[in-house]
Amino acid sequence: MEFVIKGGTVITSTSSYCGDVHVKDGKIVTIGQNLSVNGANIVDAAGKYVLPGAIDAHTHLEFPFNGTTSADDYFAGTRAAACGGVTTVFDFVTQRKGQGIREAVAPRNALCAPKACVDYSFHVALTDLTPAVLEEFSAAAEEGLPSYKLFMVYKKDGLMMNDADIYRALERSKETGTLIAVHAENPDVIDLNIERFQKEGKLSPWYHYLSRPEAVEAEADIRAIHWARTLDAPLYIVHLANYEGMQAVRDAVNDGYEIYAETCPQYLHFTCDVYKRDDGRNFVCSPPIKGQKSQDALWKGIKEGYINTVATDHCPFRQEQKDWGKDDFTKIPNGCMGVENLYPYMLSEANKGNITFQKAVELCSENPAKIFGCTQKGALEPGKDADIVIYDPSIDFTITNEKMHSNCDYTIWEGTELKGYITSTYSRGQLVYKDGEFLGKAGYGKFIKCQRQKNS
Ligand code: DUC
Ligand code: ZN
Ligand code: ZN
């Protein structure tokens, strides 16, 4: 298949220019002015922007969690991704006790491969850091798996890793050029707060926020950063959502440490006031959405370059699942949707003038590709995969659940007004979304082997 996307404005992380993009056999061949290629189809992009597909570095598809499973399986989740301009998703494989890294990934990949509509890779959530697992870091990295997530919470779910685990994992990641990511919150203070609220009958979603407020997340960010600094090991903080944690990242980066921070659109758009709403339970995720001061710090961090990526933590639960916690926040499965909203939201923020389009590309595509080692992704450049999004800046789009492509029966983004919207998504040159319609198919998406560069 060969085509030329003509007359659009090509956006990279550093520039934007009028150019034609020649695609052949799933790859970008060349980008230039007034290209004419014999026999190639023409895609007219006049008045539109042409961008690299987004990489959502943080999704939980068919994720067994909180006594249930997240609502989007690999098909629905990657269908929604394609329709939101996301051409690569990173999902989490949870290591069961006693399992090796590749032993945990193999069945997950077998489940994912026939369902995936866009390309995918995995981070492995480690729960059992045996000497054999530490030893396996290098062999797993050679097979394309260079990143791990350590939960500093979820003791009762059997996911939590303690400080010694974090220390050992950071040590080993430094030796092997791999990357440790942490979900940072303090579990003991959360448990104490929950116990108190339960005794007092304070069980509305607002108390989800109050049981894990700013300081609970900040303490764990600071602790994880402390160990990374001590060992001079790289660290990636997932879903950073609070002011003090942002400050600690900024200080560590300014002191020369390799600390990466990810935040999510829900932390950039909403504040903790959503937990006072009648549908507050639908916004319950962990870490919870914080106050205005934290949101302002995250936007400042984005503008100053201390936030490296925006990803979604996409982990939707259907209304019936969220309703388990209607009268008791501790029973609400934690997670929000976002994979279809990430790129449209960030590009809309660019179109409204809050950030540049280049910044949106850097956060949603180029940086995740660089940090996790997706060498074929993350930029519109000759030789890279033709993961391409066409975006019409003139469309006014209001998000409603009917227009979304997830399996979920509501969206926290309902009614959000976006300036501009994606009109087409290509995954390796294949049109997978056009004008509201999903055109991809299950099994098309491929596992991407990541090759992380040290100090990338
Ligand atoms: N937080 C969530 O809200 N859902 C999935 C996992 C997580 O850490
Ligand atoms: Zn998390
Ligand atoms: Zn997560």
Describe it.
By secondary structure, this protein is an alpha/beta fold. It folds into two domains: 109 residues, Urease, subunit C, domain 1; 321 residues, Metal-dependent hydrolases (TIM Barrel). Helices cover 32% and strands 24% of the residues. The protein contains 13 helices and 19 strands. The strands form three sheets. Strands 1, 2, 3, 4, 5, 16, 17, 18 and 19 form a nine-stranded mixed sheet that branches. An eight-stranded parallel sheet has the order 6-9-10-11-12-13-14-15. Helix 7 runs parallel beside helix 8. The longest helix is centred in the middle third of the chain and has 18 residues. The two termini are 33 Å apart. The relative contact order is 0.18. Bound molecules: dihydropyrimidine-2,4(1H,3H)-dione and zinc ion (2 copies).
